[in-house]
TrEMBL record:
Cofactors demanded by this protein: pyridoxal 5'-phosphate
Protein name as catalogued: Cystathionine beta-lyase
N6-(pyridoxal phosphate)lysine, modified sites: 209
Gene giving rise to this polypeptide: metC
UniProt keyword annotation of Lyase present: yes
GO MF term (any one): pyridoxal phosphate binding
Organism from which the protein derives: Aestuariivirga litoralis
Amino acid sequence: MSKAKPDLSALSPETRLVAAGRDYAEHGFVNPAVYHGSTVLFPDTAALSSRQQTYVYGRRGTPTSRAVEEAVALVEGGHNAKMLPSGMAAITTALLAFLKAGDHLLMVDTVYQPARHLCDGLLKGLGIETSYYDPLIGKGIAGLIRPNTRVVYAESPGSQTMEVQDIPAIAEAAHKAGALLFVDNTWGAGHYFKAFEHGADISIQAATKYLVGHSDAMMGTVTCSKETWEPFRHAYEEMGQFAGPDDMYLTLRGIRTLDVRLERHMKNALNVAEWLRGRAEVETVLYPALSNAPGHELWKRDFRGACGLFSVVLKPCSDKATAAFLDQLQLFGMGYSWGGFESLAVPFKPQRTATRWQPEGYSLRFHIGLEDPDDLKADLAEGFKALNSAS
């Protein structure tokens, strides 16, 4: 007699990460198989005509894709999810699924820069107008919504300058006007921020970051409410989207340890951010989980935790001094993306049109990995020595 299956929706978020998608494993194995396949055979002409079988073609779904899609939807608290080959593919597909010529998009001014390029390039060419808004506008966004505003897009916190948005207030205003709210939930990873509980209609992640978690696969996710699922699913299939089976498997594997990894990232980041806050070379630390940091009260209200990504603004120094700081670092790599096990540091200059970002000193974004935070602080201290020597 087989055991009864647990009701995963009744379990804690930590347990869901471990249990989700396990129904697709066979023959006693803990993990589902990785299906590499395009053609799916039908047993007879009746089945071929009706297409009424679980799997009909590789791009339309496999046991591998269904396992990870169910896991992502359960983590996010949404109705259903789809996997895409990158975070940018997820953003593009979600927007194109709901926008058409003549529509208006309200985009947060802190948005991921490639998404800004999408709005100002491809979407503009298709006759879709984008307006950028202050991430701290909150309920005031109601004054920017037009009769043809179809989507309001949020990213909280902003992945460079870390503004935390009042998502429930924005959701209320958007829904009152008949618009949808999309949330880029990569920083909260669907685990530390429950976008649907706060009013989102669609939650998007660059799963390349924390869901994968090991800097070895590209992946995007789009999780939908029940109301947005069918329109999105149709657009997803019409655009021929699908992710590779090995990358989907790596995403599912990463989800299993998401809770413990995020906990360690947060612990390390708080340690290093507090230390940086005390450095004479640092003007401010932008990490919402820090007490008295910008956005802390909203973060404390809406988030269950924080990840390893934050930014700092240095006190004014020369280009040479900032380069000396970065070049001295040995444990912090200089590279884009984040969310992996490794620590990273990059300078940034955000593009803005609705708001201003012009600090006097350099802006640096840090991702704090899984190393010993004392080693990371020692590495940073050597960097500051180089900075001061070059000033």
